[in-house]
Fold these 3 entries.
Entry 1:
Amino acid sequence: MNHMERKTAGVPTLKRLPLYLRLLRRIKENGEEYASGAVVARELGLDPIVVRKDLAITGAVGRPRLGFQIDEIITAIEAFLGWSNTADAFLAGVGNLGAALLGYQGFEQHGLRIVAAFDSSTDIIDTKVHGKTVLDIVKMTALAKRMHVQIGIITVTASVAQQVADAMIAGGIRGIWNFTPTSLEVPSHVILQREELASSLAVLSHRLLLQGSDD
């Protein structure tokens, strides 16, 4: 599948594919060799037509009356998402959120490995957090260049987020995962993903409110 074909996947599809992957891995652990789109749809409470279209975009081909061979569809989804080969990442800002991300063991299963963490606080620099020594953030740009790191994760305070992003980009980082509320300005060649924690909380709170009004 070429790069242009991958671009046809919309954001909703990209967000559903990891859900399919998690379910398919569980089905495989249960000893099943095949899984149909209908089974995936039923387990996740989704429209079978949506699931069928999502899985088709990965290039995987199902077998009549059997569905998708588990290993094949798992491999296809991982390849489509770019999770086949683990990518190295730098994390800047080792506060509560940054430390929590450093300790999350699930990233490597999704193709991401945080190889170094950076901070500007002398209280944190040279300490170990989840087995990783925190480095002075002034070293980040040079290290990114030397290690050819492509992904940067920003969990610093909002006031310095743009400065940190600029330092990452100067080091050759082309993908930034922004956990701050700051809207970053980046060149067109840099992919920016902003994690809207407040927006997600707003959706959750509103749904709880609606649920409460139905009781």
Entry 2:
Amino acid sequence: MEWYYAKHGEKQGPVSLATLRSMVVTGEVAQTDLVWKKGMADWVPAGQVGEISGVDSEPPATPVASPASSSQTPSAETAVRSPVAHQPIPNYLVQSILVTILCCWPFGIPAIVYAAKVDGLVARGDIAGAMDASRKAKTWAWVSFGCGMLAIVGYVALIGLGVISEL
């Protein structure tokens, strides 16, 4: 069976299953890069196809294309517009570390935990999970920043009150 893969928005292939597996193992094809073969309705991340990733799981449920249309591959442009087509998902790790050190560490720690999960989830092909972890990391980073700023404003206000009381 011939496989195609999308790399940087361009369709590559055909390649054999064995070749595609070795490309995934070496990292030439990422778990989040999209793949397609005849009979599949749409491009899917390589990490979600059990026979490529080596995980004993069913490929994602996609309707099988009709025989008349299955002789042509879906365009690589379809793969580029797909929400899982290698769009970078920010992990907010640097921001999380900075707000933990400089602002409010109790709220910065969850930000770091969620930020650290993002890249691993992307590597496994769990794009929805990675996006959720990214959103939570961003939220906790902002909460930590806000609490830190609130503490600074409160500290400055107390100093101001002390100065005024001395007059």
Entry 3:
Amino acid sequence: MLALLVLLLAASSAPAQVLRVYSEFSRIGPHGEIVDLDRGGPPREILSPAIPRNAWSTFQIVINLPAGKRYTLHVGQNPTDAVRVRIYRPVQQQFGNRTLPDRLEPVALPVEGRSEGPAVYWMDLWADATAPAQRIKVEPEVLVDGEWITYPMEVRVSEAVAPETGRLMVNPPPPDKPSDTGALAILRTRLCDSRNMGKPALTEPKTVRDLILRNVSQDIALAASPEVLWRIAGATDRRAWCAAVPTPRPPGSQGPEWYLRARDRLVQGR
């Protein structure tokens, strides 16, 4: 019992990981926590994500440093310029009784900062349609007190090329909804109301919701057939699934990151 208590105390006093990467479906709140709307099971560890070509892929970088520490954020690549990188700073905003990241402010690399609590940046990666399918290094790096701290991330540029046709856009959901709400809306529209299908303009995203919808629209365009999307939806009764409000997640889902499994299947053509 004493040994267990010692282990628990040690765990509670352990320093937070200085540099960590999350998916776009685990929005990070003002204190470095996953917002309550997006919780459900442990967050996916982002170490070797597969990304499609002719598409954007997005990740969150979280920097945890003591207050007052100055840092510089870089993103290293090997091969150099294998993908295009854009960085955004999310603005925490009040929606009812919740503080949530929503508006995005573009920032230029390298990013100079001074720690006032956990710092969050959204990293957007563009892989050209003609980029070679290969494994590349895309590593967030923080310089602090003359030392480099690196998050080891190996990105798998896949064979999949997101087509320009078949991309579907819907109106962004309210900010105070789970992060997969827009993904479910696109899936529902694609399967249940084909009259609303259309190609979205891939303009600069202004909000986190815009960015998530843009990414999902790319994924949906990869589907070889509606049957692939029905399997992802997990709908045994299609009419009931289309009529349900809100649109249900697939059976067994534990929070918004269920969609990452769907994305994996679409990118891998399964």
